[in-house]
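Entry 14. Ran structure prediction on the chain below.
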Amino acid sequence: MALRRSCPHGGRRTSTSSASIPPSSPQILLLLLALISSHPAVLVRSFEFPKLPSFFGGAARAGPSSSVLSPPAANAALIARTKSDLLTAVSGTENGKTASTETQVRVLRLVRTLEKAAPPSDALLSDPNEAAKLDGTWYLQYTSPSAVEGLGGADGGSEDDDGDEADDAELWKPVDVSEGGAVEVAQFRAQGTIRAAGVTVDTAGRVTKQSFDISEGTVTNQVEQDFGTVTVKGPFRASKTVSNRAVVGFKELTIDLNVGPTLELGWIFSILEKATGRDVGGWLETTYLDEEMRIGRGNKGTMFVITRDPNAVRP
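Output, structure tokens:
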């Protein structure tokens, strides 16, 4: 191969020739290794996938024309669709009082879908920022037993909407049921009613509210009746064993009559506490929660759907 050299004094360049020596195989290998070690980006990074944010799990990204949703987007779509179906299913049932067995089964399956798709934070009642999501007034839209015939083998076996055998995963099962004075979960079978501290109130077609006051640490249930408004209230504490469970002890019972005085009946709870040696109340678990909807389960075996918007469902 020819080499052209310039004169150090700016003189005319001269050319010299030398014989061309073909490199041997070891020389070629050494040359390639030298290139790789000196320029790793050329041979390595050209074939690396770009690092994705951790919430994508490192999965390959779909192209712009792909209709495949990422896991978070797919889950959000499932939740939105299930919430819409749930509100439609509970509409026109008078808070569950007129719901057929088929409707109850459908509602409980939709509820379980939400509970499994987006369980509440483990810090729901221990972190003030998380607890603030519970704060304020919620409106009862539906209540029913947590188990009905035809769901998850409650009647000895059933089939789901796709014809597959329903399994026990569809059934909600409480943990540590004896907490807060509740000796056991006794299924409260009445539909469209709520029960607190032995007081059973029909909620069918009634404005029924539940309010959490996080700063005060209290829960208030309020139901409008033909004769007036019934209110029960008491402090709550976070469960020691179940992160999404509030243990409630009712202290106040008032009946604000439409005509006549307001009856203060909290003394009934005081008598019951002395007779039983424990608070009058129980516990309630928040099993699904977002800014619009809350789903809860109580120690009486009831399931309830409540919303921020009082008009979220058709009466």
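Residues 97 and 192 are 4 Å apart (CA to CA). Will compare against last week's run tomorrow.
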